[in-house]
Specification:
Helix content of chain B: over 70%
Largest sheet of chain B: none
Oligomer: heterodimer
Distance between the termini of chain A: 23 Å
Radius of gyration of chain A: 21 Å
Shape of chain B: globular
Strand content of chain B: under 5%
Structural class of chain B: mainly alpha
Mean pLDDT of chain B: 87
Number of strands of chain A: 0
Number of helices of chain A: 9
Number of helices of chain B: 4
Order of helices and strands of chain A: HHHHHHHHH
Low-confidence stretches of chain B: 87-92
Mean pLDDT of chain A: 86
Shape of chain A: globular
Order of helices and strands of chain B: HHHH
Largest sheet of chain A: none
Largest interface: A-B, 18 and 16 residues
C-alpha cells in the first residue's frame, strides 16, 4: 500500500533527525554558558527529540486516516478534494522531520565551518519555507473544491481578508527587515539584503498564511453549509483539526521567523511557547484522525 | 420518457438530510447488499426491509435514537406516498 511507503519514508526522516540531533556535538559556547558536559547535553536533547517524535507520529496517524477515507471515496467530487487535503497534510507531516533534520545538519555544519554560517542560515530559511508552501497549496486546493461543492447561505466576503492582510503584511515586513535588537555586527540575521528577504521570504510566507487561512475558512464553511446531520457532525472534527494545524503552522512560522530578531531577550519563554505549539499539533492531527474515522465509518456500514 | 423520480431517488433525497454527500453511497450499499437488487429497481414492497436495515446500520453512526427513528420514518413515508400516487393514478 502506498501509505506504507510514506510510513517508511517518514520513519527514515525521523531516525535521520534523531541521529543528527543526538549524535552531533553541541555548541561549546552553549555548553560553557550552562556548565554542562557534552554527554549531559545529549541526554537533554532526548527530552526534545522523544516528545517531538511522538508528536510527529500522531501527525502521520492523522494523515493516514484522512488518506484512507479519501481513497474510499476517490471517484466522487468530495473524494478528490479530500485527497488533495490529505496530500497537503502528507507534505506537512513529512516536512516536519525533514526540515528538522536538515536544520540540525546545517547547524552542525555551520558549527564546524563558521565561515559557512551565512550560507547555512539562508538554506535553513528557504527549507523552512518551501515545504509549508507546497503543503498549504494542496490543502488550499482541496478546501476550495469542497467549498465550491455546496451552496452557501452567505458567500465569502473578501474585504475583511484584504484589510487584515494588508496590515499583517506591512507589520511582518517591517519586523523582519528592521535592524535586530542588539545586533553586534549590525547585519541582518538572514544574511540577505532587505529587498531579497521581502521578495523571497516575507512575500511567500504571507502567501502561505493567506492560503492557509482561506483554506481553514473554506473547510469550516463547507462543514457549516453541507447537508447531512451525521455527516456534518463527523466533519466537524476534521474541520477543527485542519483549522488547528493550519493556525498552529502559521503561528509557529511567524514566531520562528521573528525569533531571530529577539536575540537580546530571554528566549526561554519563547522556546516554551514554541514547544506548546508543537504539542498542540498532536491535538490537531488527532482531531483529523477522529473526524476521518467517523467519515470512513459512514462509508463502511 | 418518464422524468418522475424513482423510489430510489426519493430515498436518496431523504437520506441527504442525514448523510449529506454520503447519502447515495449509503442507500445504494443497503439496497445492493441487503436487498440483493440494483438500487434503481427499488420497489414499494422492498421499503420495509430497507428501513429495517437502515435502522440497524444508521444506529451504528449515531447515538441519537430519535434521529434514527426520524430517518426511518421519513423513508417509510415514501412507501405510503408512492402507494397513494399509484392508487390515484388507477382511480383516474
Amino acid at each position: 500500500m502506498k501509505e506504507q511507503k510514506f510510513l517508511y519514508l517518514f520513519i527514515i526522516l525521523v531516525v535521520l533527525y534523531a541521529a543528527i540531533a543526538l549524535l552531533s556535538p553541541s555548541d561549546p559556547t552553549v555548553l560553557a554558558k550552562y556548565n554542562i558536559s557534552q554527554d549531559k547535553a545529549h541526554v537533554l536533547s532526548l527530552t526534545v527529540v522523544v516528545p517531538l517524535t511522538a508528536i510527529w507520529f500522531s501527525g502521520f496517524y492523522g494523515f493516514s486516516r484522512i488518506k484512507r477515507y479519501a481513497r474510499s471515496i476517490i471517484s466522487t467530487r468530495e473524494g478528490e478534494a479530500m485527497n488533495l487535503v490529505a496530500n497537503g497534510l502528507l507534505i506537512q507531516v513529512l516536512g516536519l522531520p525533514a526540515s528538522a533534520a536538515i536544520s540540525s545538519f546545517l547547524s552542525y555544519y555551520a558549527l564546524k565551518n563558521p565561515d559557512l554560517l551565512p550560507m547555512t542560515t539562508i538554506l535553513k530559511n528557504y527549507v523552512a519555507l518551501i515545504l509549508p508552501l507546497i503543503a498549504f497549496y494542496f490543502v488550499a486546493q482541496g478546501a476550495e473544491r469542497l467549498y465550491n461543492s455546496v451552496r452557501h447561505k452567505k458567500p465569502m466576503s473578501f474585504k475583511p481578508w484584504v484589510i487584515t492582510f494588508i496590515v499583517v503584511s506591512a507589520l511582518y515586513s517591517w519586523i523582519i527587515i528592521s535592524k535586530p535588537i542588539n545586533s553586534v555586527t549590525g547585519s541582518a540575521v538572514y544574511f540577505l539584503p532587505g529587498w531579497l528577504v521581502i521578495l523571497t521570504l516575507a512575500v511567500p510566507y504571507l502567501f502561505v498564511w493567506f492560503q492557509g487561512a482561506q483554506a481553514a475558512y473554506q473547510i469550516n464553511a463547507y462543514q457549516s453549509n453541507v447537508r447531512g446531520v451525521v455527516y456534518k457532525k463527523a466533519l466537524r472534527y476534521l474541520a477543527a483539526g485542519i483549522t488547528a494545524i493550519i493556525g498552529l503552522s502559521i503561528l509557529l512560522q511567524l514566531l520562528v521567523t521573528i525569533s531571530a530578531r529577539l536575540n537580546r531577550l530571554n528566549l526561554t519563554p519563547l522556546l516554551g511557547v514554541l514547544y506548546v505549539i508543537v504539542a498542540l499539533y498532536a491535538v490537531g492531527y488527532i482531531l483529523i484522525a477522529l473526524g476521518a474515522n467517523k467519515l470512513k465509518k459512514i462509508e463502511d456500514v | 420518457m418518464n422524468d418522475t423520480p424513482s423510489l430510489y431517488q426519493h430515498a436518496v433525497e431523504v437520506s441527504k438530510d442525514y448523510l449529506g454527500p454520503a447519502a447515495e453511497r449509503f442507500i445504494r450499499r443497503q439496497i445492493t447488499t441487503h436487498l440483493g437488487k440494483p438500487p434503481e429497481m427499488l420497489a414499494q414492497k422492498d421499503m420495509q426491509k430497507l428501513v429495517d436495515w437502515v435502522r440497524l446500520t444508521f444506529a451504528l453512526l449515531t447515538e441519537d435514537a430519535d434521529l434514527v427513528e426520524e430517518y426511518s420514518e421519513q423513508l417509510l413515508s415514501l412507501r405510503d406516498k408512492k402507494s397513494n400516487l399509484v392508487n390515484n393514478a388507477h382511480q383516474a
